[in-house]
């Protein structure tokens, strides 16, 4: 049940990203809410749950936009799992955890996507792919991360972990 | 059994990765139709997306309008000037049309039938990572959309239908790097291979001897079989000769501003 709630949040963010953010953005750059939230989930929930959420949202992403099923599912799975392994010894209440882990998450996620598209011989120039991660991207995303992390932590503590201990 | 319990997480993840790799392999060749569950997910999400898409585009357009208010007067004057120039050209054009028709009659020349039937549809969402390379429209197989149909706007070519499910379909726009088709320069009749570019423009490759100049209009040649003939693609912006290569690189500005696409037409 909790997985359903958490994936619903991710789905809402995905829909927002594909519609509203395409028009209301900052010079074409907008926060990658899905990735940010997934990284937050991975830090807070640990490796038992995070990869499932990664696969669910990745598959939804693939179904709604990708023409090849599995690229985003695989990249989100790998990202969520590795992030939860890396952050397993971190102090979850501090904002230092998400900030230090977020760049690693972005790198893992996009490396996997790029690697798969490269292996499928879809022609994408590496330099142009990297240039989309410019300074504005990092500023916008890290600010969003700083706002989102406490909210998600609060949400998970109040609605998810509580119902777990009760049941 | 104990060993299995101990390594359950690892085994689950490895099998999931293998399953997803299998999915990637199975679907990488492209598909004509989507499966039932996928169609169901899209049917659920598309109404929400349609509302959000059109509202946010409206807000964006309103904002753009307010921002552009101060420069409107200058622009208006410029357009009026252009209009006068074009009226003169139009008179000339009308004369040419009459002349052309007369000559056609003399030569008994048959023209291509350009009266296509259209399915009008609206965009409901865009791939958040790739931008306008792939977008979703609100017409699917139940409305008669089929794979590889040509998607256009009155200004010109937009793309082709990539995948169809019952109520929605995905469109691969011409600016995607995996899209490639054959175009022809109207003036010099040289063929150009046109593909997408990461900067939302089009790249074309033509023969070294091709006489293509900036400002030339490029239309589809109809040779690759996917796109219909004589649909406007864009205007040549730059012609570059690459060192050590036997082809000219041509930068083409698409005639359709893809970042403002809202309604599109699908040619039946």
UniProtKB/TrEMBL annotation, chain B:
Gene that encodes the chain: mreC
One GO cellular component, as annotated: plasma membrane
Pfam families per UniProt: MreC (PF04085)
Descriptive protein name: Cell shape-determining protein MreC
A GO BP entry: regulation of cell shape
Record-annotated Rod shape-determining protein MreC beta-barrel core domain positions: 123-268
Family (UniProt): Belongs to the MreC family.
Organism: Alkalibaculum sporogenes
Biological function: Involved in formation and maintenance of cell shape.
InterPro entries assigned: Cell/Rod_1 (IPR042177), Cell/Rod_MreC_2 (IPR042175), MreC (IPR007221), MreC_beta-barrel_core (IPR055342)
Coiled coil found in the keyword field: yes
Ranges in a coiled coil: 69-96
Highest taxon above the source species: Bacteria
Presence of the UniProt keyword Magnesium in the record: no
NCBIfam families membership: mreC (TIGR00219)
Keywords attached to this entry: Cell shape, Coiled coil
